[in-house]
Amino acid sequence: xxxxxxxxxxxxxxxxxxxxxxxxxxxxxxxxxxxxxxxxxxxxxxxxxxxxxxxxxxxxxxxxxxxxxxxxxxxxxxxxxxxxxxxxxxxxxxxxxxxxxxxxxxxxxxxxxxxxxxxxxxxxxxxxxxxxxxxxxxxxxxxxxxxxxxxxxxxxxxxxxxxxxxxxxxxxxxxxxxxxxxxxxxxxxxxxxxxxxxxxxxxxxxxxxxxxxxxxxxxxxxxxxxxxxxxxxxxxxxxxxxxxxxxxxxxxxxxxxxxxxxxxxxxxxxxxxxxxx
Length: 277
Fold this sequence. Notes:
Blueprint: E1 4-8, H1 12-24, E2 28-32, H2 38-45, E3 49-53, H3 61-69, E4 79-83, H4 88-97, E5 101-104, H5 109-120, H6 125-130, E6 136-142, H7 146-152, E7 170-176, E8 183-190, E9 193-205, E10 209-214, E11 224-233, E12 236-244, H8 251-275
Parallel strand pairs: 1-2, 1-3, 3-4, 4-5
Antiparallel strand pairs: 6-12, 7-8, 8-9, 9-10, 10-11, 11-12
């Protein structure tokens, strides 16, 4: 049996959907229909992750998250909120309550499963993976300011046109939550199969440094750490990208792939510049 996930959801159909999805991907799912039982059941079940509906009778998901994070035995368990809330302020309140992840209803099945994987991925795995190979580094000079270049990595409306995009692929989902702990999901359909790139933001230091984890479950369970450093240069700025982790025999392919991505970014920035006149 795989990692244990507690699912707190009062809607019977949603509860069954979430548990069925999790079990189909090898997780042990424990359903809870009444949020008032969640804390006691969590103490007994000892989950690796809690999937939490926000809109419930008797007690709200926000109240439950606060109770879980105040409990010495449960505060380290990550919580992924699943909610129909759409307002930006509501998401911020969910994050402030202590939720590490956030998925909105109606859910995207791909994004739901990949968000679970990201939250369950342990950061200590990375040093062991990184020992397999030396870091991959690529660099490129860009016209424009460091602020513009930094913002391009977090622009949900444009990032799908160059980040992990292939000439023959179809971008089907781009979801960025650009805050420390926030999840990024980019899914491209290639030859009829959805290839998801998922990760979590670890550092956001505008405009000079961006760090996020990256996993492509379709091809590997390995988790890499991507560091983007941007510095002012002559007539523009210079970007250095470092990838830590991954098999040593793929280092050359990773370097080539990142070089192509940076070239696509430069092309997109130039297109945006022309569009702005």
